[in-house]
């Protein structure tokens, strides 16, 4: 899917993230990287800046000193008047002294004789740090599905916490087809920590359903310049009757189902698959739903911008749905307390070129 959308990436970045001069993708992070959107999120939040040669070095193992710096940036921890943690290997003139002290003061790292700033961390260590930083806990009764951890695994509760929120989904277990492993002792790369941190930063509850008011009105811009006006009226239990006011006929019902675990949109036309979004939301591609359609869903941004009928909207959740059968790509813009405000068909089949002839836009009328 990333290969199909690669040529659209520049458009996404300009319109969605409003990247400024300092926020450039690294030359060693291709547009089809699995963590493309997570990396861009941290660039725009000024959590990462990479190296002076324009690289990020994604496959290099991440060092504790760099983790401390990233966490301080991500959490906006104060670095003035920090208390010296008295690590023997971190003098007060050390390059990252303030960041390491601030992170330790916040409880992200334990008190110990040494800090070992250039040492690497494992995936279990990562789970512990992020669970502490974002105060994550697995719901009561949550059971892990990983084949290589147990209650005796170090940082077991932290691993459950990040797994339950979708920050990690593990990797396929080759020895046990259909199952996944966590690999708690595997050392972490810079790219992987970046992805996990971005997901933790964007983790949030969210309501996608249409605002509960009497009706919603949309314009649908069809290729060749035709516009149709649709009226959505509540019909009970998350169902909306859809009237085509332009042509004078009714569509099938539009239905939304939403719980704390997921949001499901069933479109009124049969040419589009239901959209299923896992909750709580976080940036990046979500894990596969066993009972879901043959589609890949990615939250591209939690701070998107767009224009709808001449009105500017900010702080939107932008969701991409890739239909693996038709190869179509849809974008959905959701606004807090409003629901869907804009939907676009941005690619048809294997084509990745965005043209007016293939673009279908549905947008809210306010």
Topology of this protein?
Layout: H1 2-5, H2 9-17, H3 36-44, H4 64-75, H5 97-105, H6 123-133, H7 156-164, E1 171-172, E2 180-181, H8 190-202, E3 216-222, E4 226-236, E5 239-244, E6 249-250, E7 254-258, E8 262-266, E9 275-278, E10 284-285, E11 295-308, E12 311-323, E13 329-335, E14 339-347, E15 360-364
The largest sheet, given as strand count, sense and whether it forms a barrel, is: 13 strands, antiparallel
Beta strand %? 25-35%
Low-pLDDT stretches are 1-24
- What fraction, in percent, of the residue positions are helical? 10-25%
Overall pLDDT: 87
Helix/strand-derived class?
alpha+beta
Q: What order do the helices and strands follow?
A: HHHHHHHEEHEEEEEEEEEEEEE
**Shape estimate:** elongated
Radius of gyration: 23 Å
User: Tally of extended strands?
Assistant: 15
CA-CA gap between termini? 34 Å
How many helices does DSSP assign?
8
């Amino acid at each position: 899917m990333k290969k199909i959308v690669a040529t659209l990436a520049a458009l996404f970045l300009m319109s969605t993230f409003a990247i400024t001069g300092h926020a450039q993708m690294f030359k060693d992070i291709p547009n089809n990287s699995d963590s493309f959107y997570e990396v861009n999120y941290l660039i725009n939040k000024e959590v990462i800046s990479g190296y002076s040669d324009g690289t990020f070095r994604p496959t290099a193992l991440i060092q504790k000193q760099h983790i401390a710096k990233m966490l301080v940036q991500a959490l906006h921890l104060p670095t003035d008047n920090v208390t010296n943690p008295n690590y023997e290997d971190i003098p007060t003139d050390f390059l990252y002294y303030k960041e390491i002290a601030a992170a330790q003061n916040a409880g992200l790292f334990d008190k110990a004789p040494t800090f070992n700033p250039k040492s690497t961390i494992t995936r279990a260590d990562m789970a512990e740090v992020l669970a502490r930083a974002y105060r994550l806990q697995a719901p009561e009764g949550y059971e892990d599905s990983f084949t290589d951890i147990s209650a005796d695994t170090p940082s077991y509760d932290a691993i459950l916490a990040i797994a339950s929120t979708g920050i990690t989904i593990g990797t396929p277990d080759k020895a046990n087809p259909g199952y996944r492993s966590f690999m708690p002792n595997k050392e972490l790369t810079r790219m992987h920590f970046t992805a996990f941190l971005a997901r933790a930063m964007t983790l949030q509850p969210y309501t996608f359903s249409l605002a509960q008011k009497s009706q919603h009105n949309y314009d649908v811009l069809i290729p060749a310049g035709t516009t149709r006006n649709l009226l959505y009226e509540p019909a009970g239990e998350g169902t909306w009757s859809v009237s085509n006011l332009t042509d004078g006929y009714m569509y099938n019902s539009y239905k939304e189902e939403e719980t704390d675990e997921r949001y499901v949109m069933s479109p009124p036309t049969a040419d589009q698959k239901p959209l299923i979004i896992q909750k709580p939301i976080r940036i990046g591609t979500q894990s596969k739903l066993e009972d879901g359609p043959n589609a890949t869903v990615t939250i591209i941004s939690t701070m998107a911008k767009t224009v709808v009928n001449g009105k500017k909207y900010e702080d939107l959740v932008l969701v991409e749905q890739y239909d693996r059968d038709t190869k179509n790509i849809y974008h959905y813009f959701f606004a807090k307390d409003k629901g869907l405000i804009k939907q676009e068909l941005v690619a048809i089949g294997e084509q990745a070129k965005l043209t007016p002839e293939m673009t279908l836009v549905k947008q809210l009328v306010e």
